[in-house]
Amino acid sequence: MRGSKLGSRPSKADLSHLHRFATTTPRDDFALYTGGSGSPITAGERADLLKAARAGEVIELELEADTFIQRDEPNRNFVRFKPGIMATFAKSFEGQPVLRDHNSYELLARGGTIRASKLIHNEDGSKTIRMRLRLVKPWAVEAALDGTLDRFSIGWSRGNSTVECSICEADWMKCSHYPGDKVEGQVMQLVFTGATGTEVSAVNVPAVVGTGISSISQLSTLDPAVLTDILDSLPGVPAVHKESEMDPKILEALGLPSNATAADVAAAIAAQKSQLAIATEANAANAAALAKQAIADETRRLAEETATIEDRITRLIATGKIAPKGKGEESLRATAKLSFAAFKGVADEMLANGPQVTPAGAPLPALTADPAPSSLPSGKAFLASNPVAASWLKTAGVTEEQFEKHGAGARERIEFMQANR
After folding, report:
1. Domain boundaries, the chain
2. Which residue, among 346, 338, 360, has the nearest Cα to 312 in the 3D structure?
């Protein structure tokens, strides 16, 4: 919000970018001078110059303007600068553009260049930034001649420097005060501890009262081609008609034309940051949705596996392949916990080819006394004589060697089941 007055209390994150400039109003001693002679332009001479400008003649003006005054009392934006940086700050405006309405995004809004800038110490203790401005664009020349270009606003960048609270004398972002707050008779102001000038603008509504144009001189009335040659030869003065000097690789990466300005680059970067923020938010939302879907899928998978396990065990019991609550069911459930695929393979094999060990739907009869292990055949012999058991073990991925070494209990259990069918 450029040049606006503070109204409602926005967040400090917003306010930290609001006060990037302060405006000034004209002095009463507004005067026009011609040719640097020091003689005021008469009403007739001024009218002739204005008429020539409006007729399309190339007229270049140079004027001196007081563009900022820092007094003890707050300005309308409650903005001030550390006294120790004022001289360097004033000097930093040299070579920067003269704009209208802080429009840094359009080349047509530029009216000229700041030729010189310095700090003036006034007798009343205030400090003034006085600039010498060269106006070359018809809108700026005409406005200076007809008196409508007489109020100014400076623009700056604070870089990485801190903005302090004038009440706390500490980082404003960490205090509780807002610009314009009154605390024990003091008015809170934003104090910039570092700043670099970026432009000066002609505006209508000022925020700092009391300064403006002090003189205007007619420097030349030239053919446009001659004026272009002169501008090109001036050291340190950027000519607005020159092509952009931005890095072509940067412009290409941003999708900008070769004549794009720094303002165009800044706008493109801001747009890309905005798009990145939108994409980041969308990615976060998608990630949350995918996580939610993954949980739902896992829940559904577990439910389906549980239903399959119960279905197979129920069918095995119903067909007499295992006894309800018996060792066979216990073993199958243990297998299911380790591997659903192994459980399903064993259960399906038992349903298709397994022997009926109990009457269909009946519980397993009580077992006889445990036989002596010596009465059981070896593991390999047992499998050779029991092809169904061998098929179960093969489906479960158990080798004969593993069964021989670790399957004594299984051999006994199978023998008990077969003996008590």
Report:
1. 12-242, 319-419
2. 346
